[in-house]
DNA sequence: CGAGAGAATTGTAGCGCTACAAGACAGAAG
DNA sequence: CTTCTGTCTTGTAGCGCTACAATTCTCTCG
């Protein structure tokens, strides 16, 4: 900065103001400074600036996976929101809670303006760190027991809505595919909600099969096989993701079963594949873009000193009805 | 830090050393300092530390999209490499070159240890900035005309290898699906390579159809329709991505065409869907994880002052043969 | 028992920038 | 011609940390 100041014939403060407070500097002076900076490839050192000003315009987000298009929309939502407010977003991939902890420590070390996490399952050490910091924290995709703030939707409510949708189609023999093993809590919330809905409707709540999360499309055929054995006249299968649902649809194709006439199928997540395959998948669409946007908004509101009153935002969901169910 | 030092009864320097140079501090003292820090949720301010030491252990990467699993493996490769060397990786999503420019400016402002980009298509302003900085720059997925360093594979060579693979299956009527409009150069490299290979083999090089990149799976049916009209006896379709190839396979299912007997199909990218659908897709697999790893390695080598001699690394590719072709 | 070597610890200065207060300067009013 | 006002510009101090040199504190050895 010293160098640029000298080259432009002004003081370092004027250089600083040219970048950060354009209105404080005369137009002509500012343009000259910016020109000199551009000529020399000078970019203000944010680390130093943030240190001096005690604030940061960078928000850190930890995302567990970048494999599905819901997360893509979620990230876009965050990116769009930060861009609209002159902030920056930095992302770290973390597939395990241990990686998440490392990422959180890094963000805290960088003194980011806020941290956005996915889910509410963290290492005890992470929770400890998060509770002690004054940095705004937002947990997304869930709305229970936030450490600080949360943005998400109610998985149980979405499950009930999906069951009601298939009931309204006149379907009664409803099979449910869930994930077995150590999976995120937002998956485990679905089964009890399904059972409850079925009992309320006076229908069999036990047409349930659990598959491995790692099986991808492959989980479809095995789930279909298992549920068909439980009830050969099964009418519809509710899947934990659109990937599994697509696997079921492909398997129906192989078996020569018409979808939805012989078997209806519903997915979850409204991934890209849901609208691309034939028949299109009926699925639950979380408002992923909105969720990302709201998460950033919560951080910014907190930074602006606004009331921390409503710390939980429900971005809702929609049951998207396509041809598969 | 002052606070922690006081609480632990040592000087600030000892606190600093406890974190950064454990060997300089007596075990007992170090543990006490770390304990006090943990109790108070203290995390050293990296911005200040980096400023004082004049170095950074953070590498910035700009990625254009997180929609496909190749990029996922690529990011994992980078993440694994930085983790192995005690560095951190921060990601920014940028779908346009303008967004990329903003991201690059942010990284430069953060004084990262290195910047990793995808492709070699950038804004003139970005190139200018990149040439003037002394920060190591790596461009990935391409190996032509790097600004600084590059890691990638030769798309033309992979195209030729794919054509040879289908030729070796005895197929002769080969259709090609490309992307129309403003697409990344790595897509545009494929068509000339295809034409050349076909001419060398003495076969029709004009069974070509261009589709819109945004069409996803939907591009499959329209491409199939168009190529079938060009040559009703077409034997194989080479697609620009596995998504398009999957779209073609699904469409074949609808038409009752057996794959690969009636029509063989090849994709590109070895996305997850390639191995999940039936029949599995024959496709080109870029060594995405390796590419990410090598990109980080190049940055670290440069940081370690090692020779900048070999600045281009070819991570190669593989033609993965599955049932579809 | 004092000198010397080595380990552990501690001041000092400064990284590049910004907040804030103070200064310079032009033009308007008296 | 002085005073005042408002605009533009500039010193000063310090953000939280680390490199480096200096210091203190063992402990060993002649």
Automatic annotation (TrEMBL), chains A, B:
CDD domains: HTH_LacI, PBP1_GntR. This is Transcriptional regulator, LacI family. It comes from Faunimonas pinastri. Pfam families: LacI, Peripla_BP_3. The keyword Transcription regulation applies. GO terms for molecular function: DNA-binding transcription factor activity; transcription cis-regulatory region binding. InterPro entries: HTH_LacI (IPR000843), LacI/GalR-like_sensor (IPR046335), Lambda_DNA-bd_dom_sf (IPR010982), Peripla_BP_I (IPR028082). Keywords: DNA-binding, Transcription, Transcription regulation. Residues 1-53 form the HTH lacI-type domain. The keyword Cytoplasm does not apply.
């Amino acid at each position: 900065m010293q160098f640029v100041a000298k080259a432009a014939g002004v003081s370092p403060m004027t250089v600083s103001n040219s970048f950060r407070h354009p209105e404080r500097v005369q137009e002509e002076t500012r343009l000259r400074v910016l020109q000199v900076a551009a000529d020399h490839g000078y970019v203000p050192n944010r680390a130093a600036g943030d240190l001096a000003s005690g604030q940061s315009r960078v928000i850190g987000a930890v995302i567990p996976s970048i494999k599905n298009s819901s997360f893509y929309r979620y990230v876009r939502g965050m990116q769009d929101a930060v861009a609209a407010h002159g902030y920056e977003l930095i992302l770290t991939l973390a597939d395990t809670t241990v990686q998440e902890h490392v990422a959180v420590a890094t963000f805290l070390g960088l003194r980011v303006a806020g941290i956005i996490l996915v889910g509410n399952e963290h290492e005890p050490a992470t929770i400890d760190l998060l509770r002690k910091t004054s940095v705004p924290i937002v947990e997304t995709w869930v709305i229970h027991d936030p450490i600080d703030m949360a943005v998400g939707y109610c998985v149980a409510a979405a499950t009930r809505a999906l069951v009601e949708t298939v009931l309204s189609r006149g379907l009664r023999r409803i099979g449910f595919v869930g994930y077995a093993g150590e999976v995120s809590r937002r998956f485990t919330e679905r089964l009890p909600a399904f059972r409850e809905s079925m009992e309320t409707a006076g229908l069999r709540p036990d047409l349930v099969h659990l598959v491995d999360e790692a099986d991808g499309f492959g989980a479809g055929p095995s789930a279909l096989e298992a549920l068909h054995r439980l009830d050969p006249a099964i009418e519809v299968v509710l899947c934990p993701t659109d990937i599994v649902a697509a696997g079921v649809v492909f398997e129906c194709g192989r078996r020569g079963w018409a979808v939805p006439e012989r078997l209806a199928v519903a997915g979850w997540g409204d991934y890209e594949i849901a609208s691309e395959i034939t028949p299109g998948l009926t699925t639950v669409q979380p408002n992923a873009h909105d969720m990302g946007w709201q998460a950033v908004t919560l951080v910014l509101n907190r930074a602006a000193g606004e009331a921390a009153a409503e710390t939980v935002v429900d971005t809702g969901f929609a049951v998207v009805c396509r041809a598969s169910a």
